[in-house]
Design goal:
Helix content: 25-40%
Structural class: alpha+beta
Oligomer: single chain
CATH topology of the domain at 299-511: Isoleucyl-tRNA Synthetase, domain 2
CATH architecture of the domain at 299-511: Alpha-Beta Complex
Distance between the termini: 70 Å
Number of strands: 34
Number of helices: 31
Radius of gyration: 35 Å
CATH superfamily of the domain at 299-511: Valyl/Leucyl/Isoleucyl-tRNA synthetase, editing domain
CATH class of the domain at 299-511: Alpha Beta
Shape: globular
Largest sheet: 4 strands, parallel
Strand order of the largest sheet: 2-1-22-23
Strand content: 15-25%
Length: 957
Amino acid sequence: MSETNTPAPEAAEAHRYTAAMAADIEARWQDVWDAEGTYEAPNPTGDLAGDPAVVARPKKFIMDMFPYPSGAGLHVGHPLGYIATDVFARHQRMSGHNVLHTLGFDAFGLPAEQYAVQTGTHPRVSTEANIENMKVQLRRLGLGHDKRRSFATIDPEYYKWTQWIFLQIYNSFYDADAQKARPISELVAAFEDGSREVPGGRAWAGLTAAERADVLNGFRLAYASDAPVNWCPGLGTVLANEEVTADGRSERGNFPVFKAKLSQWNMRITAYADRLLDDLDALDWPEAIKLQQRNWIGRSEGARVDFAVGDAGAITVFTTRPDTLFGATYMVLAPEHELVGSIVPAAWPEGTHSVWTGGYATPSEAVDEYRKQAASKSDVERQAEAKDKTGVFTGAYATNPVSGEQVPVFIADYVLMGYGTGAIMAVPAHDSRDFEFARAFELPIRCVVQPTDGRSTDPAEWDAAFVSYDATLINSSGEGISLDGLGVVDAKAAITDWLDGRGIGEGTVNFRLRDWLFSRQRYWGEPFPIVYDEDGVAHALPASMLPLELPEVEDYSPRTFEPDDAASQPETPLSRNEAWVNVELDLGDGEGVKRYRRETNTMPNWAGSCWYELRYLDPNNADALVDPEIEQYWMGPRDGAPHGGVDLYVGGAEHAVLHLLYARFWSKVLFDLGHVSSAEPFHKLFNQGMIQAYAYTDARGVYVPAAEVEERDGGYFHQGEPVKREHGKMGKSLKNAVTPDEICEEYGADTLRLYEMAMGPLDVSRPWDTRAVVGQYRLLQRLWRNVVDEETGAVTVVDEEPGEDTLRALHKAIDGAGADMAALRFNTAIAKITELNNALTKAGRPLERSVAERLVLLVAPLAPHIAEELWHRLGHTDSVVHQDFPVADPAYVVDESVTCVVQVKGKVKARLEVPPSISDADLEQLAVTDAGVVAALGGAEIRKVIVRAPKLVNIVI
């Protein structure tokens, strides 16, 4: 080659696939995709309606869980799920689907508010800046989102509809007979015409406005109530049960949480407990997530039983074992129980056991002090099995309804108001916690279930309670009832009927699930569309006044207190803007202009994510929540998805209860009221794993930047000092975060995409190793060289027919990788593509055009930028995004031949290459006539030939 024909080094570099070339290719194609609306999914109607031929295809609605736009930006762990859904969406689009895939931002919440408190920056300013930064990072990854459908929950035109949904829930009640939500106006009409009795027996017309509001508040699906709540003085707000950690502290900030009685908004999610349980069966969710929801809802069957307490009325308990009533020797109330104050006598009853009094002079002193101690503990702490049982006698006795025995009433922190009635009948012989308490307080223990484990019926000889659901009742006879000799099931039925017949109990179902605490003492959240008149009666704003936007305030923080100040009370940021709080409005109810006070709590950060899937469908609709035809098209019930919902929803397993349960509840209410056709929001759920990384701590136990740690001589050092290595979640706090920007700079976005998908199964957590990224980079370089000459930049493919070996390798890869992508097995799809690409590289000859094109199409869902570039260099003018995914030819997928092992006396004597379709008879004939087999037989008589075509022949002599 002459010197004039030798490319200069710079020119040769210009045609190699390098990080610089990847950056150029990626930025250029991202601009083209945006300009041409490549990823826009048409609706069947409305302003996003598009090509009818595309709408006629099978649809696929693919979603990621809402990201929160953090000021720290993304690390490489965040895009794992986003890349996975993007690969799946691209594969489904190439497989003939109309794919809706987009991403919005869950932007209300505490971090932005805390930043505003620290800096004085309005939460909207910092949040919008974070969103823009996150958009840039996500765009760089080449995610194929329909950007017309994106939004943030802080957009007034979005939270207008969040407020509207709240009003639908507020203006509804749950009809237990119809098992669905109905408008509250229908309940009012029933009260007015007398077809339904007003609670308390009074006539509806005779009630004042305030009295009517109180009655309806007991039915509304969204209601305000004075109830025990989780009060966090350190944050200045109340928290839902799900936002309190196992050790009784706030998830955010790690502050102590106390029980306090405050007026708060609640959602009556408990009305839907049965449906939330039953409908899980039809969802395509991981069984572990279903189990968590079932356990959280906690359905149990049993009976409610009344224990009379002097003049105070009765203590009602819920028990799953009414058959053990004869064994109830004492009762326990939760310290917060409303009856505690009314049953405590002035003095201890004569003969009160000293162990029961806690050393206090009077019952009231003992009870008051114990209640203070219990208020400082979390529900989890109070339920801990290992700790010593504590409690105090109230000084009151109750009557066991079956035996007439007077049993002492205690308060103890192991009984919670959040489950059942906040009171239990204690049967210490047959309940472990009751047994421990009885032993600690020297209370009677009476055996009423025949032990089946060989122990005696005298509990004095026991070390632990005997608990059995398959045994016989003993010592259980009284006036008018005998359970002796009955099994547990029959005894439960008999005693329940007996209680019901005397009006002192009834069979019932109980749930662990509590109503959803829905208000926060925060600024950065959706304002409630509720105002109060001068009598304190709540009124809903008309839809014409939505959105009710957040006002400006000088101080963004709620009033906080010393973390241990359990007696403190909330003060919200909104309450300080009196011009916004106190208003004169005409609500259109015929009352004219009146003076009102706005609700000064805000909605929790979960509100916006309860319905965002619907806004993706019809994001510009200013007149309705969603067009019914559009909702039916994307989310309606269909074969295999009887409740409808999103086709694939990908996110972390940490949202198993909170977000997923709340969103399901909102969907069911909207479905009942006729606003949507889908009773479930998400039909298929997939939980991606977590990307982990090494973190390092110095001698003080303080994390040091992982990027500055050196490995030498089998140890790890930071600035010359030894550090300890541990494996944990990647993040800012552990100083081990790697940003996607870093990897894109060094290798390109396609390499990052491939590496994250190749690290392992999508649902398994995996360790990050920056050094291993280069493997996927080299795959793309080999792919590039298989199509493009690195010296000249010319395309090297030839217009020839590929050989049979090439076709077999190609079609096996197409078959395997396509099935893997459809099943979210991206790591194995990449392995098959890598194997094919390596085989083509090793062949050492130019690729045939048909092979090169199908190779590019195989790679396109995983590495879309390089695929788009190569597709166009191969002479195409339309986007690779909308090409058909290759289809494997079955003739080439099946092996041409397989190896059959022939054994004689259990030892391999021959290996035969045979067609996969060979018959047993033909295979036997080949085996017994093979020269090696004949020699091994040595003339011996064949007793039996066992044939397992096409892979095994076993000859017995």
